Structure formats: C-alpha cells, structure tokens
Amino acid sequence: MVGVYRLIARAARSDAPVIVMGRVRYRQGVSGAGDHDFSPREKKPFVAVNCSGLTDTLLEAELFGHTKGAFTGAAGERSGLFEAADGGTIFLDELASTSAGFQASLCACCSPAK
Q: 94: closest CA among 35, 20, 17?
C-alpha cells in the first residue's frame, strides 16, 4: 500500500492528466482525492462525478454545461462541471460505463492543445 501512496504523491506533482484504473471496490476515488490533496491544486475545487447511469447526452451537458433550449428540459443556461473545477481536479468515476464514442470525445477535449 505504501507503494500506491508514493505513486499518488508522484502523480500529484505533475500537471498531466492521470488515469486511475482498477477493479470494482479498489477505491479509485481515494486515489483521485489523494492526487488532488497532495498537489498544487489542493486549494482549488475537487469535483467528483459518477458517470454510471447517465446517458452520454446528459453527461455531456453536466460536464460542459448548456444553453437554454439545448435539449428538452434545458430551461436556462448552466455552466458545466469542468468550469466548476477550473484550476482544480475533476474526478470521473465509472467512466468505463460510458460509450466508446463519448470516451474518445472526452480524450480529445482533455488532450493538450497542439
């Protein structure tokens, strides 16, 4: 377990996106929070999102926000969770439950600009 904490502390010093994978009940959320707590982002927001059970469309609206009328029930403009986590950490739990297409889109938006 000490090795896991050392790895978390090492990843926390980096500005690179970190992917934490493991079997169910391996407490990836603890790793995500630890990465945040030991990083220069610790005073910024930590936003955890459970992606399971959300459709790709709803998850996209939650993460990126939406404008009034963007979809049925969108009564007003709303900022997304990426904006809420600006400068901090966003932890996407159960991301594997989303479609491959959504995951590819998310990777594209999270990749550093070239």
A: 20
How far CA 100 is from CA of 17, 50, 58, in Å, comes to 19, 17, 16
Distance of alpha carbon 102 from alpha carbon 99, whole angstroms: 5
Q: Are 53 and 44 in contact (CB under 8 A)?
A: no
Encode pLDDT of 5-44 as tens digits: 777 777 777 777 766 666 655 556 556 666 667 677 888 8
pTM for the whole structure: 0.72
Contact assessment for residue 68 and residue 4, using Cβ atoms and an 8 Å cutoff:
no
Token duo for residue 27:
């407490």
- What residues form DSSP beta bridges with 46? 89
Mean per-residue pLDDT, 52-78? 84
| Strands annotated E in 31-83 | 46-50, 65-66, 78-79
